[in-house]
Amino acid sequence: MQLSVIGCGYLGAVHAAAMASLGHQVVGLDVDEGKIAKLSAGEPPFHEPGFEDILKAGLASGNLTFSTDYADVASADVHFIGVGTPQRRDGGGADLTYVDSAIQGLLPHLKEGALIAGKSTVPVGTAARLAEIVRPRGAHLMWNPEFLREGFAVKDTVDPDRLVYGVSPETGDTDVATLDAVYASILERDTPRLVTDYATAELVKVAANSFLATKISFINAMAEIAEVTGADVTQLADAIGHDVRIGRKFLNAGVGFGGGCLPKDIRAFTARAEELGRGESVGFLKQVDEINLRRRQRVVDLVVDAFGGQPFGHRVAVLGLAFKPDSDDIRDSPALDVAVRLKGLGAEVVSYDPQAMETARRAHPQLDYAASLDDALDGAEAVVVVTEWKQFKALDPVATAQKVARPVVFDGRNILDPEAWRAAGWEYTGMGR
Ligand code: UDX
To answer: Is the dihedral of CA 162, 166, 169, 171 positive or negative?
Structure first.
């Protein structure tokens, strides 16, 4: 089938290449000329495992092209909208500028009966509004939320754990058949597919992310209690996680959640619920956000305390900048936030991340970035682990102790073995343990 994907960020570029890998003819469109030039040359503009392979294969097969010109997507049967919906600058709500401009850009180029399938995370009510705009052009609209996780984006796109189609009552049957044809090879594997109305599909996405964020903040709240009682939150998580109704996933206490989705999605959901007069229904999400942000400050406070309240001039190695491993994404990253706050307090912060150095440097040129993990550790008076990269998990406490000036470690992700590190002479502090 002929497809377009509007917006070539983490979501859109992966979706475009993944759809080409399923055998479709895909044009990826973005207004950012630099990004399109890179993608056209087979160079991923961001780090995502497996993406480069499907990007290069798509370009080589001729199934995948990129453009900045909406005229180039005019022949598509289905247009996926994968643009960002960041937090508004003036509040917690979602900024729909890019979604609206994608629809406006498409309007003059829609062929009769073309289907627009929105993938971006939008406030409930958006699809119904957009459907009114495209209907006079003879186009159809559905909402098909994306649940991909960064670091697993390719797998989550070609092998999702469910598909959700939010459809209009008028054209729903036709649109379901069209999208089924796009996802035919995914559906052959009995992937669950739920057909809903627009509002439900929009809410599924924010409800899923709100639930995940709540799970993380729940365990971080337990970490706060563990910190004043001497309990170990990692053992607590293991113990409650054995109950299959609870489950162990997303119960890792630490410096909290970040990224381009969870933080802004819970804030946008809160803002939308307030607009709808139901703010109290999701009032708990404000606490989820507050608990989450407290964990960043907790790590900073622990480091400051280690220097007797005077971090000025002390060398601190901050290991991690990305919001999670296997990504170079620093959007709302707790790791980067910790580095910036410590630097702001006068510490001599040296940061290292296996992938996110360039993205971090662009956003925060004032920080010092080490050329290697060893350089970051060299002479450090405190080591702070804030992203759970496997390189950091695999650090040998004995060898690492030789590199630093003072063996003091703060395990902001609870990924190190406290016994092994203490046995090697380290003063070890985890989060809630
Ligand atoms: C999330 C959702 O998981 C995904 O389904 C949705 O489509 C987009 O948002 P992503 O932003 O890639 O995906 O990250 P995720 O794996 O959910 O992690 C989010 C943050 O939570 C990271 O900063 C991670 O380090 C943190 N986290 C995760 C914890 O602090 N503890 C945990 O137990 C799990």
So the answer is: negative
Q: What pLDDT does 84 receive?
A: 96
> pTM of the entire structure?
0.97
pLDDT digits (tens, 9 = 90+) for 357-391: 999 999 999 999 999 999 999 999 999 999 999 99
**Of the residues 261, 262, 377, 431, which is catalytic?**
261
Ligand 1 atom 17 nearest Cα: 149
pLDDT tens per residue across span 170-224: 999 999 999 999 999 999 999 999 999 999 999 999 999 999 999 999 999 999 9
Nearest CA to ligand 1 atom 6: 147
Q: How many A from CA of 322 to the centre of ligand 1?
A: 12
Ligand 1 atom 19 nearest Cα: 257
- Note the pLDDT of residue 27: 98
Ligand 1 first shell, C-beta below 6 A: 146-150, 209, 212, 216, 250-252, 254, 256-259, 261-262, 323-324
Write out the two tokens for 302.
Answer: 């622990």
> What is the band of 140 on the pLDDT scale with cuts at 50, 70, 90?
very high
What secondary structure letter does DSSP report for 73?
G
User: How far away, in angstroms, is 382 Cα from ligand 1 center?
Assistant: 27
Cα 382 to Cα 50, 87, 271, 309: the distances in Å are 35, 34, 39, 14
Domains contained in the chain, CATH given: 2-194 (3.40.50.720), 210-430 (3.40.50.720)
* Residue 261 among the catalytic residues: yes
> Which residue from 46, 47, 262, 327 has its CB within 8 A of the most atoms of ligand 1, so it is best to mutate?
262
| Whether 250 contacts 212, CB under 8 Å | yes
To the nearest whole number, what is the mean pLDDT of the chain?
A: 97
Please answer whether residues 338 and 329 qualify as being in contact, where contact means their C-beta atoms are separated by less than 8 angstroms.
no
